[in-house]
Task: structure prediction
Amino acid sequence: MRLFAIDLDGTLLHSTHMISERNVTAVKRCQENGDIVVIATGRAAFDAAHLLRLHRLDCPIIGSNGAEIRAECEGITIRKNTYVPSDESEAILNCLLKKNVYLQIYLEDEILLTFDATDRLMKQINDEQRINPSFQADEFLQSVQPQLKQYGVREVTGFLNVDFAKVMKYMVVSPNATVLKQIQNDLSSQNCTVTSSGPFNLEVTANGRDKGMALQQFTERLGISLTATIAIGDHHNDLPMFRVAGTSIAMGNAEDIVKRLATYKTGHHDEDGVAMALEMFCSIPFDLGGGQDGKYY
Result:
């Protein structure tokens, strides 16, 4: 038995934010062969579960960059949440609010967003276009669509009533790279983990909580060796699971550092790179077509 840990955005999902028929088929065939396929994503677990239901897939989920584990497999039920400590959570929120950035707060069953956040983000995009001629607004909006269009978001007037003991993740978006760098520097004094799932966002979880830690805990619970684990991803927040998995596979569209640290490379997410990898490792009959045989691995 092997375990495949697969990222969603930029990996299993196409640019349309849907899972292709070929990827769905490859996941199901791996499961039929007795392997476990776990989704490891920065998205909230309930958001990931919603996407899987739309495509009639049933997989364990590592959500919120490792702050959530949801699984019912091998006769074991796992439901684990890791919250940002209350005092740290309040300090993090105050730091982020000072920067006036687009901000989402991840709770167990919903994502909180102020009602004016999107309008402020659009103004920041216009400001960035004015001061930075090389800024591509269309590219920015395409990149942050997973954050702007998530399932389970609730708009609120403010964050005064947030229960800091129940926060699993903070996620910010900004078109200004300098602002994101300043936030990262400001948070370096806090007891938290800061990562990114795209060039225009930052994601903040409890200290030490990432996809790699969650993958370790999940495999230990199931009694599966990490050497039998294969991680597939495209961005910085996937690197912790690359470091612990026996094998790592970078998408063709992955960041350069992800490609450098991966054991193998596969195709672009819009070309069913996940299916290519699963077909190779699961020995599923397949036809790459288009003369692509040998292009990957």
